[in-house]
Design a protein that fits this description.
four-stranded antiparallel sheet, binds cytidine-5'-triphosphate, 3 helices, five-stranded antiparallel sheet, SH3 type barrels, binds zinc ion, 158 residues, 2 domains, alpha+beta, Alpha-Beta Plaits
């Protein structure tokens, strides 16, 4: 019998160096990639696991993203908090987890989501980045026009 933990390892192998974003709310792995600017033309080696069983998360499912040879910086970690507030970021060096951080919801987020109000100055031709105050998990308020985003944040990601 293969222990559950090892079965997980068989699914996607350990990485030597980089970042593992674990405990992502199921269904949000692709949004995490988007936040990190990883697209089809990126050269990074990235593994994505979706809907694997998790005892810790609601509905018992989680996504995992492993990015090789890149260590996420705090600003990136904060953005991930927006869509996956229970995520853990593991920094891996030479196969060892050298740092494990919980994501933290920032107070202000700049240039991460666009304002739903088409007349907002942040959507105009002016060179102004969108700015939202984070009121609560999943509730954002535009600092320019006070529009609220309180559902489907992922659809507003820039
Ligand atoms: N991981 C990896 N490559 C490594 C080391 C770890 O891909 N060289 C991955 C593991 O598969 C896991 C995550 O990084 O998804 C965290 O590893 P670890 O802390 O060993 O796992 P857990 O103890 O299960 O973590 P937690 O307590 O956060 O659930
Ligand atoms: Zn606005």
């Amino acid at each position: 019998m293969i222990p559950d933990k090892d079965k997980e390892e068989l699914r996607v192998r350990s990485i030597r160096n980089g970042s593992v974003i674990d405990h992502i709310t199921a269904g949000n792995a692709l949004n995490v990639l988007r936040i990190l600017g990883i697209t089809g033309i990126s050269t990074a080696i990235v593994s994505v696991v979706m809907n694997v069983p998790s005892k810790r998360l609601a509905f018992g499912r989680k996504d995992i993203v492993k990015i090789e040879d890149r260590e996420l910086v705090p600003a990136e970690v904060d953005k991930i908090a927006l869509i996956a507030p229970q995520a853990t970021i593991n920094i891996i060096r030479d196969y060892e987890v050298v740092q494990k951080k919980l994501v933290v919801l920032p107070d202000l987020i700049t240039h991460v989501v666009r304002c739903p109000n088409l007349n907002c100055i942040s959507n105009s031709a002016e060179p102004i980045y969108s700015k939202f105050r984070v009121l609560d998990s999943f509730v954002l308020r535009c600092s320019y026009c006070e529009s609220i985003i309180d559902s489907d944040i992922a659809t507003y990601l820039i």
